[in-house]
Design goal:
alpha/beta; Cytidine Deaminase, domain 2; ten-stranded mixed β-sheet; two-stranded antiparallel sheet; 14 strands; transferase
């Protein structure tokens, strides 16, 4: 038989006394939780252990004796430690002693005499009580009725330490009749400020919850479901981000206690993400309002818009000639070029009409940075969408015209082969056409085929411009999603206190010598940084199109519209 004794490393320098802990008979293991020092009264120790067992539901008992031979070893003390086995009846009675400055320990057991005595091999396993307590490698504490009693799992050790938290919560200035040594032997010093904050957090959370519920009720009211407001709410990324942050605030201000470690980490990650987001937003706002940067930005915006419009006019003039030596259909080329030039003229007039109010708009927009950097970035994305609205219109016109010709050519090509598209069955069926239908189809196919290069060139140019805008907006939304979803609190814990995010344990051999117990050190294996991000990553409420390259090329070839980003639950057309 192999006897495993889990001994807390914080008790290695404790004075002599008795070992209290839990005996796990299925594993033939003893989990030492603390050392009770001399002098003590056995009746008081039994009463104390009974109270701990009643509160924690852990069968805590006296498992053996501990002897620290830093002082001169007295024979009376050793005899007294052996006699304690008759007072605190436990089988087997564990005796651990530290021999002066020697690195080797002696560990033995006292058992009742039997007919077939068996020699037991003892393995002494050191563990860091604080790390085991905070690593959360044990089953959830709320499932105390379904405790893990499986002998093949090491989680029983962690479960024992975690549920014995009451044993470690000792006031620093409480001089009781029993003196213990454990990972919090110095006691917990109460702080008046912390206690006042705990008392004030409950009404503050209730007030914040009421305000947030009132605000969310206004957002869900029927007024916002009418067409103009509902359309703006679904298309503007700023509204989506504000709704996203509103849900985060509701999660943080909830007075419900977290049920497990994942919920607690999610709340902490959301709180740290909000805190950093608002701090970065305030820094951005302070930078914008220094040295009249808002005015300089407004003065720069109009010339930039005019320069972009002039470049588009030069591009259209180039397309209306002979671009790259290509011979285009002159009539269609002139019509499309003048049509787009007229839209640019309207856009320049629109920009100059808004120019007196640009600085005032930017001044009020800059104040929104106090809500967070992500809100400011979403407003920047919406401003880019508004300033490039004419490019979007050009892209939509070109895509619709190109898509009409592509589908017209594909339909007429099926006509030549004696096929047609069955709308009801959603398939291609055979069909017989008369001579007039084939003649008209041939004329239309020829016209569309010769007009296709001119349309395709305009579509290609405006698609590239549209993709440039989409890439810029995509980078902005990627940064927003990174700030929203990155588990910053978990990453800080992994960097500073890696044992709080544990993935398992490992054992390291400390010493192995014949006639001495095998000494092992149990260490916590932390999660990798990639595992932390994957496990505790926060959900995002906006996503960039995740189409494959083949799907994107198919959309470009067929002239289907490509949107910069879509909201959760919204399908792309």
């Amino acid at each position: 038989m192999v006897l495993k004794v889990f001994f807390p490393s914080c008790c290695s320098s404790a004075d002599s006394g008795i070992l209290i802990g839990r005996w796990i008979s299925e594993q033939n293991s003893a989990v030492i939780l603390a050392v009770v020092h001399f002098p003590f009264i056995p009746v008081q120790v039994k009463q104390y252990l009974g109270e701990v067992q009643r509160v924690t539901k852990v069968s805590v008992s006296v498992l053996g004796s501990w002897s620290n031979s830093k002082q001169e070893k007295e024979e009376s003390l050793s005899e007294f430690l052996e006699d304690l086995g008759t007072i605190f009846c436990h089988e087997p009675w564990i005796q651990i002693s530290k021999e002066g400055d020697s690195k080797f320990w002696s560990c033995s057991t006292l058992q009742k005499p039997s007919k077939n005595p068996q020699e037991e091999e003892i393995i002494l396993v050191y563990y860091d009580q604080r790390k085991v307590m905070l690593s959360h490698l044990h089953p959830p504490l709320d499932t105390a009725g379904q405790r893990a009693e499986d002998a093949s799992k090491l989680s029983a050790i962690f479960d024992t330490v975690a549920r014995s938290q009451v044993l470690f919560m000792t006031d620093r200035y409480d001089e009781g009749p029993i003196k213990l040594t454990h990972w919090q032997s110095d006691g917990v010093e109460a702080s008046i400020i912390v206690e006042l904050m705990k008392q004030a957090s409950v009404p503050a959370c209730m007030l914040l919850t009421f305000l947030l519920s009132l605000l969310s009720g206004i957002c869900r009211s029927r007024v916002l479901k009418f067409w103009p407001l509902s359309f703006l709410w679904s298309k503007l990324s700023t509204c989506e981000q504000l709704g996203h942050r509103l849900q985060h605030l509701q999660v943080i201000s909830s007075n419900k206690k977290a049920q497990n470690q994942n919920q607690l980490m999610r709340k902490a990650n959301i709180f740290v993400s909000l805190l950093i987001d608002v701090a970065l937003g305030i820094l951005l706002m302070s930078w914008l309002y220094r040295k009249n940067r808002i005015g300089h930005l407004a003065d720069t915006l109009i010339p930039v818009a005019d320069h972009v419009a002039e470049e588009l006019q030069d591009l259209l003039q180039w397309l209306m000639g002979a671009p790259a030596g290509l011979k285009m259909n002159r009539a269609l080329d002139q019509v499309l070029g003048r049509f787009f030039l007229y839209h640019i003229h309207l856009w320049i007039s629109y920009i100059h009409l808004l120019s007196p109010f640009i600085e005032m708009i930017l001044w009020y927009v800059g104040l929104s940075a106090c809500l967070g950097l992500t809100v400011a970035l979403c407003i920047l994305s919406d401003i880019i969408a508004l300033l490039t609205f004419h490019i979007y219109c050009f892209y939509v016109y070109g895509a619709r015209l190109y898509c009409l010709k592509i589908y017209g050519l594909s339909s007429l090509w099926r006509l030549f082969r004696g096929k047609k598209w069955n709308v009801l069955r959603q398939r291609v069926d055979s069909c017989s056409y008369d001579l007039d239908q084939l003649f008209i189809g041939t004329l239309l196919f020829t016209i569309l085929l010769f007009l296709l290069p001119t349309t395709a060139l305009y579509y290609l140019v405006f698609t590239l411009l549209r993709l440039l805008v989409v890439i810029v907006q995509g980078l902005i939304h990627l940064l927003v999603d990174l700030i929203d979803s990155l588990p910053l609190y978990s990453l800080i814990l992994r960097l500073c206190r890696s044992y709080r995010l544990a993935a398992g344990v490992k054992f390291r051999v400390l010493e192995q010598q014949d006639g001495k117990p095998l000494r092992l050190l149990m260490q916590i294996n932390p999660l990798s940084y990639g595992g932390v991000v994957q496990t505790y990553r926060l959900p995002t409420y906006s996503c960039y199109p995740k189409d494959s390259w083949a799907s994107l090329c198919k959309k470009l070839f067929l002239g289907e519209l490509i949107y910069p980003w879509k909201h959760k639950g919204e399908k792309q057309n």
